[in-house]
Amino acid sequence: MKDGIYDLSTFFQPRSVAILGVSQKSGGLGGRSFLEKYLEAGYPGRLYPIHPQAEEILGIRAYPSLRALPEVPDLTMIALSAEQVPAILDECAGIGARFIHILSAGFSELGTPEGFRLEKRVKEQASKHGLFVMGPNCMGPYSPASKLTAWGAIPGLSGPLGVISQSGGITQRLTEYACSLCIGVSKAASIGNSTCLDVSDFLAYLGKDEETKIIAIYLEGTDDGRRLFSIAKEISRRKPIVILKGGESERGAKTVSSHTGKMAGPTELWQAFFRQTMSVTVTNINEWMDVILVLALSPPAKGRGVFIIGGGGGNSIVYTDTCVRAGLTVPSLPENVLTRLQGIVPPAGSIAGNPLDYWETYLNVKRLCEILDMAYGAEGIHLIIVDRLIPRKAYHSPEVADYVGEIARFITSHPQKKPTVFTIDYEGGDMELLHQGASLRRRFCEAGIPAFPSFERAAGAISRFAQYHLALTETEKGLY
To answer: How far apart are CA 183 and CA 161, in angstroms?
Structure first.
């Protein structure tokens, strides 16, 4: 430990992995499936399946026990029944194996005396022998750079996002979601019951990790709220922390105790925690990914004033209301910008203002870039949302040339660029539209421009994004 922070790098960069509980036949989640996925991902290290009778599994030599291995494994994964775990931890300590991932369930999350007893033994053994234990009841470490991707997106994509989660399923979903939008993961930790190493330990580690620029946390509860508060408050000044909190409702809080054995805690207490640590909070996985997308791809926001570019009078009204409800402002454009717009926007069928109702922005990339250039130099405009329509018969819209690359190059290279996001309205059930919209969204994100499937989600994401950056600015001025 250095400065109160454990070096947990071995979890994410192991040169060898031993797996206990590898069956000789495929089927279900367990040691065998992890071994299969490590091979599929191209893990380059040494894999040691442990089985009392088998000589080899999946073409890899098997060993009857940890003591029979030719070396001490960097990472030991346990996929045996909960009753067997304490004895295995003793064996790990005996050979000097210190980094351990316990996939096994059947501990405090059961709410039974035996479950609590077994989890207490795990904690006592880890403390006694100096073991670093992830879990129990968890999917464990994930690192695309190391090809350590037995779950989630396989083989995944390396990038700036660090993930800490008390749910394996949610961690899996977020890594897949991020990869599909070309946002890579530095390291992810599915920590389950977090009996020994908890959220605070992994947050402190990722806070110092140079590869991690944004930290996403799925949190159900913690046994040391003061420590988590202190660490989060310090890290959020350098890296945004985006938290999806589970157990906010009364029913959800009851479910938490049967999932990881944690106490969810009073909602008011957590709200104060989030506010004082400048954590960005979300309520579902779509909001989680939306905010991460803007944080990963956009320059800092300097205000809440948004310029809406699109077409349609009704859309302009609804979009304005949406932004205001989200906590943004839709200011009038500066006189010099308004004059320039009035010189190019026809008076009939369009509206030169904010929102800008101008259908040519859908068809003419050079015109759109000209308007973006005006917005980047406009005082009081801090954020831009550009509405994009997929060509369709209902709108009498002609096919247009592929414009994503040209738009992205203009935005990313502009010396005065401001956070700019695109919306691609493809929700509603039309299968062809869904396919085209999802593809277009990915291409924008791959080119470095955040894109969303609806205006509402774009507005919600940039509002949270702006709130974080404004709070950060106030903190730097000593006002927060």
So the answer is: 7
**C-beta of residue 16 within 8 angstroms of C-beta of residue 46:** yes
Would you say the C-alpha torsion 121, 227, 245, 179 has a positive or negative sign?
Answer: negative
In the chain, what are the helix, strand and coil shares in percent, each to the nearest 5?
45, 15, 40
Would you give the DSSP letter of residue 194? -
CA distance 396 to 427: 19
Q: According to the model, what pLDDT value does residue 363 have?
A: 86
Environment class of 298 (CB within 10 Å of its CB; exposed 0-12, middle 13-18, buried 19+): buried
Per-residue pLDDT of 368-393, as tens digits, reads 999 999 999 999 999 999 998 777 66
The two tokens of residue 265 are 């805690």
3-state secondary structure of 365: helix
Q: How far is CA 279 from CA 112, 206, 374, in A?
A: 34, 15, 33
pTM of the model: 0.92
Predicted confidence (pLDDT) at residue 290 exceeds the cutoff of 80: yes
Give the distance between the most distant pair of CA atoms in the chain: 82
Q: 325: which 2 tokens?
A: 């409800």
From the number of C-beta atoms within 10 Å of its C-beta (0-12, 13-18, 19+), residue 466 rates as: buried
Q: How far apart are CA 58 and CA 222, in angstroms?
A: 39
- Helical residues (DSSP H) of 150-249, grouped into ranges: 168-180, 199-208, 225-235
SS3 (DSSP) at 251: helix
- Do you find a cis peptide bond into 240, omega within 30 degrees of 0? no
- pLDDT, mean over the chain: 92
